[in-house]
């Protein structure tokens, strides 16, 4: 729940000074391993510096390792950068999610994640919420190593603080996700919104949140099937409240190891978008991973 502005510009400046400039460049690294098929996946390495922190929950009944990403103060202030390196060893499964929506306050902030995956990575962060005059950049690069490597990745964002009159009031938002298998590009998904190009609110029409969810690889075939459920458009009054457009991902000929699916979702409420994401993820238990959106409540 949003508790209003994070303070005046002076308070934010004092807070940044208190953290130290070096700490504004948060870095983290994770390594998930599973040395024996009879054992659960574990984190053999976990390191983070402010503003990034890790929480390591346990989910009974799941053999996947899990990490919750938390940022200092629940969001990113001007100058914050977060760089995360993830390694998932063969046979291991790693679930990475966030505690809540990542707030991006006024100024420039950036996050990047680089993953080397020989097992299965399930990356399910909450949508990002950019506030007035925020400029946010996010890059996710996943390198699938070997024919069994697989991933599920979610990327989403909301209109910001609509309740405070900040609907689509940020300066710019740029996200990019690239997935490769053994160096061959399988997916390049990019989205860019910039107020310099015209009113963002007008271009977003009635929608308040967007999400892109995809699954690639043999280890996440059940999730792929869930993503490819029929297209949906629910009508509430004259306007559709939710639009979901799934499609298979094209893969190189004779490369069944890279079979994938993608769904793009737009909704008039962030909750509606997350509900649809969860519906598409209903087969997560079949790959021994819990739904973090449900499990944390």
UniProtKB/TrEMBL annotation:
PANTHER family: UREASE ACCESSORY PROTEIN D. It comes from the Bacteria. Keywords: Chaperone. Residues 1-29 are annotated as: Disordered. This is Urease accessory protein UreD. InterPro entries: UreD. Signal peptide: none annotated. GO terms for molecular function: nickel cation binding. The lineage of its organism: Bacteria, Pseudomonadati, Myxococcota, Polyangia, Polyangiales. The keyword Chaperone applies. Belongs to the UreD family.
């Amino acid at each position: 729940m949003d508790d209003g502005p994070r303070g005046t510009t002076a308070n934010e400046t004092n807070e940044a000074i208190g953290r130290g400039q070096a700490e504004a460049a948060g870095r983290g690294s994770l390594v998930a391993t599973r040395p024996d098929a009879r054992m659960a996946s574990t984190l053999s390495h976990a390191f983070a510096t402010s503003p990034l922190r890790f929480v390591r929950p346990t989910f009974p009944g799941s053999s996947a390792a899990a990490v919750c990403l938390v940022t200092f103060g629940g969001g990113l202030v001007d100058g914050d950068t977060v760089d995360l390196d993830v390694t998932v060893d063969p046979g291991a499964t790693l679930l990475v999610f966030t505690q809540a929506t990542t707030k991006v306050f006024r100024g420039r902030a950036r996050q990047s994640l680089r993953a080397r995956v020989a097992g299965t990575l399930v990356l399910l962060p909450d949508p990002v919420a950019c506030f007035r005059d925020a400029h946010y950049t996010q890059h996710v690069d996943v390198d699938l190593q070997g024919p069994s490597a697989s991933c599920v990745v979610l990327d989403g964002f909301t209109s910001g603080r609509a309740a405070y009159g900040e609907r689509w009031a940020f300066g710019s938002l740029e996200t990019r996700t690239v997935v490769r298998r053994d160096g061959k590009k399988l997916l390049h998904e990019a989205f860019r919104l910039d107020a310099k190009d015209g009113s963002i609110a007008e271009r977003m029409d009635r929608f308040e949140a967007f999400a892109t969810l995809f699954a690639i690889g043999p280890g996440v075939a059940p999730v792929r099937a869930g993503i490819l459920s029929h297209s949906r458009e629910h009508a509430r009054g004259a306007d559709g409240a939710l639009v979901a457009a799934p499609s298979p991902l094209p893969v190189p000929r004779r490369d069944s190891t890279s079979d994938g699916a993608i769904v793009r979702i737009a909704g008039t409420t962030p909750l509606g978008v997350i509900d649809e994401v969860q519906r598409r993820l209903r087969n997560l238990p079949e790959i021994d991973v819990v739904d973090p959106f449900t499990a944390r409540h």
